[in-house]
Amino acid sequence: MADYIRVAGADEIPAGQGRTVEVQGKSIAVFNVDGNLHAIDDTCVHRGGPLGQGALDGNIVSCPWHSWRFDVGTGACLTNPRVQVECYPVKIEGSDIWVSC
Fold first, then answer.
1. Do residues 78 and 60 touch, judged by C-beta distance below 8 A?
2. Residue range 83-99, pLDDT digits in tens
3. I want to staple 52 with a disulfide (CB 3.0 to 4.6 A). Which of 29, 57, 90, 100 is the partner?
4. Which residues pair with 23 in a beta bridge?
């Protein structure tokens, strides 16, 4: 696992929302679930949709292309339990969000 990379200010991702960031050439979706931050691969395993642009309901994000649903805390796919997206460690230091991948 690589070092942590600053991806945003803590106030830039409001509760109940997500944002797509680039970390070492990877597209990562970072979500704020009631103040708890989670990072997953931004690319839906179904057809490559951008998960960071999906609607967040609790800790579940729906892909905006075909509505495949993923748990942002575990990467588990609720639509097809045989697949999942990768999760990445997230930490907050001061007012900054850091992700490692």
1. yes
2. 999 999 999 999 999 99
3. 29
4. 26
- Residue 49 pairs in a beta bridge with none
Return the ∠ at Cα 50 (arms to 71 and 30), rounded to 5°: 55
Query: pTM of the full predicted structure?
Result: 0.94
Paired tokens of 22 = 């680039």
Residues 6+ apart with CB under 8 A from 33: 15, 16, 56, 58, 59, 72, 73
CATH of domain 4-100: 2.102.10.10
The domain ranges of the chain are: 4-100
Tokens 């230091």 sit at which residue?
93
With contact defined as beta carbons under 8 Å apart, do 29 and 20 qualify?
Answer: yes
| Count of beta carbons in the 10 Å neighbourhood of residue 98 | 19
